[in-house]
Amino acid sequence: MSNIAAFLYLVSGVLFILALRGLSHPATSRRGNLYGMVGMAIAIATTLVLATPSFGGFVLIILGLAIGGGAGAYIARVIPMTSMPQLVAGFHSLVGLAAVLVAAAALYTPSSFGIGAIGSIHHEARVEMAIGVAIGALTFTGSIIAFLKLDGRMSGKPILLPNRHIINAVLLALILFFIAGLAISESHFNFWAIVALALALGVLLIVPIGGADMPVVVSMLNSYSGWAAAGIGFTLGNLALIITGALVGSSGAILSYIMCKGMNRSFISVILGGFGGETASSGADNSDKTVKLGSAEDAAYLMANASKVIIVPGYGMAVAQAQHALREMADKLKANGVDVKYAIHPVAGRMPGHMNVLLAEANVPYDEVFELEDINSEFAQADVAYVIGANDVTNPAARDDKTSPIYGMPILDVDKAKTCLFVKRSLGSGYAGIDNTLFYKDGTMMLLGDAKKITEEIVKAMNE
């Protein structure tokens, strides 16, 4: 029976790998999701068969699956795409909390987990338990802070505590000390000390991170949740959990590294929670500058007479649910012979791939969507750059102002187009909390209002 279970867990692992591969491209993402669901179904069914609980225990397991599955299905149906980043952060917190609770259960009832008896838990199991619970507790509170920031319940600006790096280093040293203590003595005090210190460290690592860097945080916490799951998988002796956790942990770490490289951030500083808020300045003072306001008719005329238009979607498009109107506008332009492309910044929106998902939802052709490094050089040849709610990722201050908190972050060079049409509700700052100098450039025309409404009005003006 154990050999069959190991084989089924291996099948699940292969399906999870295929799921990750499928999710790497919009064209294969549905297939990737299907692989992941089938793999998880096999893993859960195999675990249930292996558990062979009593009737009462089996009822509790089924009840738990029903409650969790029902809640998940309901949330998936009612949560809009604009809230997906904070939903992901919230789910990461649940993974961390589950790791803590499973580790606690293993500590108090080790015989149920096959890791020894009370007072004589296997040494390797103690180490696995300690590491898993530390990462899980850190992931739990870190994800909650990320959720609060993404959901607007906490300021997106960095909260910089005095001597925070020293405090974090001390907390990490204490966590390692108590991990060693738990491995040696199996003390319950050491276990809960690890939990308390890791919970505190999770908060302190995330609060100093600025809003513009939150997509990297989501990816980083995704990695942490994977390693927490893998650590508990060793404690449980569950091959599927080990494989899944390792896949999530490694893929999240790789994605975080790629995103940091794309944002000119240090991967080490991300791990230490010290990026995104080192500079107190909010950039140049633009209080005495004016903006050029335009209308939907102006925008329609400029784009209808252009030969090349590059569309830059951002979080404002997601909030307004303007992706379908945007595709209609692009289709109209293409029918008139205009070359239309979409430019995606690595951290546009609030999570990795946010804009790609929305454009795919609107059936935008994949071959028209380009990443920053592939299209940035084309803005200089574009007649119009149509920016729809993308603020921080188009801010020239990141390129030109060394005092800006986002200085050094690669941006989409929309200001190099002949005309930049910027759709935004107001002239307010972006998620990073700083003013966008693009608003005040001579080649920029601001279209203030709801992104969906303005885009629909542009399409109407084109038809007329």
Number of helices: 18
Uncertain regions: pLDDT < 50 for 5+ in a row?
274-286
Give the biggest beta sheet.
6 strands, parallel
Would you tell me the structural class of the helices and strands?
alpha/beta
| Helix residue percentage | 55-70%
Gist?
With 464 residues, the protein is of the alpha/beta class. It is 59% helix and 8% strand.
Task: Describe it.
59% of the residues lie in helices and 8% in strands. The protein is α/β, with parallel strands linked by helices. It folds into 3 domains: 1-78; 83-278, no CATH class; 296-463, TPP-binding domain (Rossmann fold, 3-Layer(aba) Sandwich). The strands form 2 sheets. It has a 6-stranded parallel beta sheet with strand order 5-4-3-6-7-8. Helix 4 (84-108) runs antiparallel to helix 6 (123-150), helix 6 (123-150) packs antiparallel against helix 9 and helix 14 (323-335) packs parallel to helix 18. The radius of gyration is 25 Å and the shape is elongated. 47% of the residues are buried.
Topology:
Elements: H1 2-23, H2 29-51, H3 55-78, H4 84-108, H5 110-113, E1 116-117, E2 120-121, H6 123-150, H7 164-185, H8 188-206, H9 214-236, H10 239-262, H11 267-271, H12 296-304, E3 308-313, H13 315-320, H14 323-335, E4 339-344, H15 354-361, E5 369-371, H16 372-375, E6 384-388, H17 397-400, E7 419-424, E8 444-448, H18 451-463
